[in-house]
User: Fold these one by one.
Assistant:
Number 1:
Amino acid sequence: EQDVSEYMKSLAIRVSGFDVPKPIKAFEDCGFPSQIMNAIKKQGYEKPTSIQCQALPVVLSGRDIIGIAKTGSGKTAAFVLPMIVHIMDQPELQKEEGPIGVICAPTRELAHQIYLEAKKFAKAYGVRVSAVYGGMSKLEQFKELKAGCEIVVATPGRLIDMLKMKALTMMRATYLVLDEADRMFDLGFEPQVRSIVGQIRPDRQTLLFSATMPRKVEKLAREILSDPIRVTVGEVG
Ligand code: ADP
Ligand code: MG
């Protein structure tokens, strides 16, 4: 067997935490069902990126993760693929129960990109994805959320609005992703992010991704993640 630490060095990746699951070298190592493998191939993804090599096994094992990696490193698939697996493991959703996976992103553009990527992988399973962000009609979003979805991708402000309007509850939410946490804080969303996290059951799985880890983000991570594994890709962090 190849020395894992040598392999990690070749990826310029640093990992810390206890009992870290071994990185994968190919998507085949993840044990994904065939529909997910087909969707990965259809996307033209031949090999997992560095962050995917380490993050996928960690997240698939159910652990919380802090992923520090810059834009373009392939973080979306690293949290979307395990999210689909997580949802397939859950009892089917009743209409009024609210989403199982909740993804927060700083801007509507980013939320929309994640929405598109999630839909590509969710489609084969009939997993429904809703996007919730500013600039879209609140009434339309309210109706869409009321119809039910397994995944919601949202900017923090609009998600809070929808929660206040009782368009959804988060009682079934067990998989929370905070994407680009540093940018969410830069844009002043810390109170909204904290409020959302506070409305999701504490036994959830939490994934926090950020290009940088300023003190405020580090503090949030300490407060809301349980025994996380930290994965740093490249020179950042
Ligand atoms: P990040 O969120 O880290 O900025 P994205 O998840 O948006 O990065 O991915 C950046 C680009 O790389 C996207 O165009 C995405 O489709 C592509 N990509 C992601 N994973 C892979 C992969 N394993 N192989 C090839 N391209 C990939
Ligand atoms: Mg991204």
Number 2:
Amino acid sequence: DVPASDAVKALINKGMMIPASAQVDDSVLSVLSEVYELDLEWSDDSPEVVEDAPLKTFKKPILRGENLKPRAPIVTVMGHVDHGKTTLLDTIRNTNITAREAGGITQHIGASRVHHEGKDIVFLDTPGHAAFTSMRARGAQCTDIAILVVAADDGVMPQTMEAISHAKAAGVPIIVAVNKMDKPAANPDRVKQQLSDHGLIPEDWGGDTIMVHVSAKSGENIDQLLEMILLVAEMEELKADPTVSPEGVVIEAELDKGKGAVATVLVQQGTLKKGDIILMESSWGKIRAMINASGKQLKSAGPSTAVEILGLSDVPQPGERFIKVDAEKEARDSISAKDQKRREVANQMSPRMTLEELYSKMQDGATPTVNLLIKCDVQGSVEALVGSLNKMVTDEVGINVVHTGVGGLSESDIMLASASDAIVIGFNVRPDNNAKKMAEKEHVQIRLYRVIYDVIDDIKAAMEGMLAPDV
Ligand code: GDP
């Protein structure tokens, strides 16, 4: 009977960062029962217990429900650059997609569903372990099987090894696609030897790693690769209950000029329906429309279905989980409680500053920190900017990025910036009217840019005291 925000605070005090919407397991319940002096009792329909679950896995849905049904596997393609990840995905999509049915127009929503021998496989469209791991860093894991593409003429390369580590760290089974077998220089035995050295021993050498010789270009053995995916999926016993309350994860999100905030979500359990009210970490919404990869409007989406949804209050981050809530008020309250918490956390940061004031503070002999809130049009720019900024930190001045995001500048961004005395950097995005008003009221400096170098230059100049006050 305590407010969720209370429980979240109590957990933070115990060193556990767990959002109110997260599913929790025994260890969290134990901590809560201690804090609130409650007795724990397990009922028969309690969720399957995850043994030794690290904190992060809280965000992976715990299997629940009594009507567990097999579900389609979610697959990510990884591997070294130029080894054929994109080509492989294209070939698989072109030969197996069901999207063409009913005159659908294939559109990019971040995931594609292919059909093979009466079964479905869902491929996440962004290949590579960067996307995979940035989702995981946010605590979301939605990949069931990793396809490791290794070019037979090139062999194991640095990013091949990285991909292996990332998949292993996530506990995701790996299927190796030894690619470019059509090339005269293809040497699959060398690839197998190299992979064995890294702990992936092929089945025909007595190990347990499935390796398929393919050519993404000619399509050779792609069927066999799909068969192996279905085989592994069967061994993994991937299941979900379509009848429980829906939940899942955001895999892509953007601000669309016409449609507003749109997100592609992957339903992991339950069935999401048009009109449902869903709550994410930074956004909520009543689902106005759901569209699949063939551009078809759906009324409902069951487990392992990726759908683009419209009707969100804000652009969420990939990796955020969603749950269904019963009432709009519940969603709204939860978001404003979260904003409040963000502000409280941000409040403990250093005092207000503009870029122009930075230099004079430095002259005073203090070691100032520039707090920045960064919003960009695409996630790639966020990462590029933050990467460059991190390299600029010196002994004299620190840089603290309080928040990053994709999409236009909203009122809640400005509130957060105000509370944390952050300068707002908008890269290829603009503040909406409410955000503009709020910025004036709160005296928050918004700086808009179109070129990454300009951002870097301005901040460098400020750090060196070169920037003429202009805002
Ligand atoms: P990615 O960087 O891993 O996504 O690699 P791409 O799919 O972009 O492929 C890199 C290059 O390798 C492209 O020029 C492809 O046409 C080529 N390629 C990919 N798969 C094959 C294959 O099976 N055989 C041959 N000969 N070339 C391939």
Number 3:
Amino acid sequence: MKLLEDKIREDGTVLPGNVLKVDNFLNHQVDTKLMDEVGKEFARLFKDEGVTKVVTVESSGIAPALMAALHLDVPMIFARKHKSLTLTDNLYTASVYSYTKRVSNDISVDKRFLDPNDKILIIDDFLANGQAVSGLLEIAKVANVEVAGIGIVIEKSFQKGREMIEEAGVRLESLARIASLDNETVEFVTD
Ligand code: G4P
Ligand code: NA
Ligand code: NA
């Protein structure tokens, strides 16, 4: 998506450790018009898949997921993060390990909001190692719901997430794909 790539080039900053900082339009302050275009693009890509709900993880996935859900005319669910869960009878849960933060979080979705007739579209802001997406795929499996696909705003193609999703056999659409962040420069995947 050209608009997004241009925005990343203009407003993104590369930090040491292969981290792309985009907190001025995606991860803290949010560019609403850009997010609207992101949502439109996800809706265009997945419109024929019979999506009944869009699912993400709080907090940075919420903005793109909300816009995708709006344009697909379905509800959006954000899985909640917890340090660890005790009472889980009414929840679908999964454990998510973050390599960057070196912590595990449980994520959960209330059982009332997913049923076997649902077909979900998973949306997230970043795909790095794919741990958040793995957690949502696990929740989908336990909830017995079909996964129409995965939509990512910014994929770090040099990390392991894409490979994991391809192995799982799920459709993946990333609006920007970053090949490298070496030398503090953003290189996009060219295909
Ligand atoms: P993974 O889900 O793909 O495995 O991500 P990983 O554990 O590697 O990263 C942990 C968190 O850091 C995730 O956010 C992920 O979206 C974010 N992240 C990974 N690489 C980058 C990057 O280059 N730039 C930015 N800005 N974020 C990155 P999270 O813990 O789920 O937090 P939240 O922001 O959604 O609350
Ligand atoms: Na995220
Ligand atoms: Na994030």
Number 4:
Amino acid sequence: QKAQIGVTGLAVMGRNLARNFARHGHTVALHNRSYGRTKELVEEFGHEGTFLPAETAEQFVASLERPRRVVIMVKAGPATDAVIDEFAPLLEEGDMLIDAGNAHYADTRRREAALKAKGLHFVGAGVSGGEEGALHGPSIMPGGPKESYEALGPLLEDIAAKVDGEPCCVHVGPDGAGHFVKMVHNGIEYADMQLIAEAYDLLRRVGGHSPAEIAEIFKGWNEGRLGSYLIEITAEVLKQVDAATGKAFVDVVADAAEQKGTGRWTVQAALDLGVPVSGIAESVFARALSGGKDERAAAAEAGLPGPSAGAEHSGDLVADVEQALFASKIVAYAQGFQQIQAASKEYGWDIDPGAMAKIWRAGCIIRAKFLDFIKQAYDKKPDLATLLVDQYFLDAVSGAQDAWRRVVVTAAQQGIPAPGFASALAYYDGLRAERLPAALIQGQRDFFGAHTYQRVDKPGSFHTLWAAEGRPEVDA
Ligand code: NBP
């Protein structure tokens, strides 16, 4: 008997993916650097399906039917390269190595190019949903050569999350497209979490609501257009009481947000592409600020003053914050999708943005009803310049904007940081501005560096001879 698929790297993620394949009736070959994990999996979960455990890489490869499909689920980075170096010489033309870890897309591009030269298919697949997702149905974002999807896709679609019977898995595009999209997914997740945190902070500090009350507000919001996994778990977290102290859980947790790096990668890639993902960037920086222990201690010691008088919020705070949250979320998603489109163009990946929204509807952390509207927007117009001009989002933002502005004003007046809400609003206003002060920046650049500028009334590049006396002369 041969296995349809093999998994190497059997820590929590790999183990659960292997069990998921087995539960769907596939025979799964198993391998791990240290045999202990392989043995443990078979002892504990062997009854769930058919597993072919292997002690060595050679046995593992020999137990797979061709073309061989080897899922790598090890620690991202050098471990992935070590595993590739171990397996590549044992594989034959047309076999596939699928990296399901959280690799940087640039590493994936490098690995694919190297393996292609050896006649092997390398598929960088983004897998979202954590350990629960891996076992019960993740959202899967495979990249790599299109041909490989024919032999691999059906197996991945089997184990993926489903919405109305449709799998949350699609061939994203060639090369590093899958890991790129997974990265942006995580960046959007950072922005979403930051915006939710700002909403909580304002409800607490402006509205005076307790964490338990705010949990109820979020629960209510979860029934509406904000309905999503992140809003749902926020209500759960806020409701939680610390057993040791009897205080709200959120009040006993140190307020320094950590990060593993995918948000930062998203912003770094956006800088290179020149895409303004300000919502994601603010969320990465807000985490960094929260963790800036020395600066925060110095500020506390110096007693950096807040506003002399905090004005009251004019309006229904809870309703206004819901509007601000929804509008800012739309901006963050619009920016993330723009980044995907920019990379797709830059690398020739031909990514269908609507399909990304579709496979994020279940299995992953940002799963939400909202994604249906994004899918519909791109289905209607695949080359949509920005989500903000799609009718649904345009209506939502124009309906929200007065409340959104009131919330940003209140935050500024009361000295409560809301970088996500404020920068999303600034982005929105920048996008809709008829004239931007960028014209002045062009003038400054031309003045000090002779960088030239373009004119609104005729084509060409112009330079003004600034130093000349009297009337500035113009070079065409
Ligand atoms: P870890 O990231 O903790 O990695 C442990 C696995 O890597 C073990 O199987 C270990 O083998 C193996 N490994 C290491 Br470490 N160095 C190795 C080497 N040089 N050669 C061969 N194998 C090596 O496992 P995880 O938490 O299950 O995560 C796996 C991947 O999934 C990572 O890329 C991670 O970023 C990603 N991940 C994704 C999500 C998600 O939501 N998508 C969640 C968590 C993790 P050993 O047993 O012999 O030490």
